[in-house]
Amino acid sequence: MAKKIKPTSDQLSRRDFIMRGGAVVGGLALAPSILSNTGAFAARARGENVGGKLSVLNWPLYIDEKAEEQFKKATGINLKYSEALNDNNEFFAKYQEPLSKGSNVGFDIAMPTSWMANRLLKLGYLQKLPLTDAPNVANLSPGFQSPAWDPSGEYTLPWQTGMTGLAYNIKVTGRELTSANDLFDPKFKGKVGMLSEMRDTVGLTLLGDGVDPATVTYKQARPSMRKLQKAADNGQIRRFTGNDYQDDLVSGDFAVCVGWSGDVAQLVLENEDLRFVIPDEGGMRFADVMVWVKGSKAKAQVAAWLDYFYTIDNAAQLEAFIQYISPVAGIQPALAALDPVAAKSELIFPPESVEARLKTFKILNAKEEEQFDNAFAKITGS
């Protein structure tokens, strides 16, 4: 998951960017029908004031500040909202010990990426979400109702989803890019960036080599790992980055890099030569998901949070601000009322033709995770 970029006051709005059509994207198509549209979250519909306290840990710039205040007013809940989740592994290292003891970790809901949520689930650090007290979760897009990271669908609920593909500077590349193997084009030697997120970089490389990341074994991945190692050793790869790939892409130090779909919408505000594309071989899909951590007693407050943000209108408002890919089905008409241009954007509702090309990285067992992580650490020099 990328740390969001906060636009400065003199930058164009994302709506302006969409109108200018500065990106080529591909991705998910949401279900066309609304599964449940109560119009108001359950507690409000019953005239209840939930009250109590709720603490939420999320990624930076991943919610509309107005939505925070509206949630407080609608529920009477004293909300403590933190944007201190910056890295999945750092999160795990920091909270593993208290979570293993069922201790109070200072938050009730966290929003790790799906693979990390799966790890937390396997370790017994999560509670089942109070879904029966949150009827609006019926609006969850069918594609996420039994995900690989949470087959029962009882422990996680997506907050937002997104795509990993190629981000590039056409002024530097001199041409449009269409293949994951463009990352290894000798013409771009020394101007290629790869993400330090293993599942993104390895996943895209696997797709370029004709290997499905959703089913890959470590043995099958070894040729792609060697390919990455060679590219790191011979200088094809300039460096491995976190979210800071943005600066190199804008400046032209990167001709092309592995990047996240949502970033391009803001990066293009600084440079109209930037592009994002899902390669012909496919791209990676990620989801940041809400989990209820062990030790939290805030059941009613957690239910109110889930229910509130899975209401069609509230999900649409959230989407108007974040503009990744919403996991809530049927928001397009409500989003159109807020922003007609955004409701037609392929950044938010990419064409169905690309949905089949998006892959979620396989859920690794402990041995596989160690193998992949060790090999990737060697490649990145970390």
TrEMBL record:
Q: Which GO terms describe its cellular component?
A: periplasmic space
Protein name, as recorded: Unannotated protein
Question: Quick one: a GO biological-process term for this protein?
Answer: polyamine transport
Q: Keyword set for this entry?
A: Periplasm, Signal, Transport
* Higher taxonomy: unclassified sequences, metagenomes, ecological metagenomes
In terms of Pfam families, this protein maps to: SBP_bac_8
Q: Where does it localize?
A: Periplasm
Entry GO MF terms: polyamine binding
Q: Do the record's keywords include Cytoplasm?
A: no
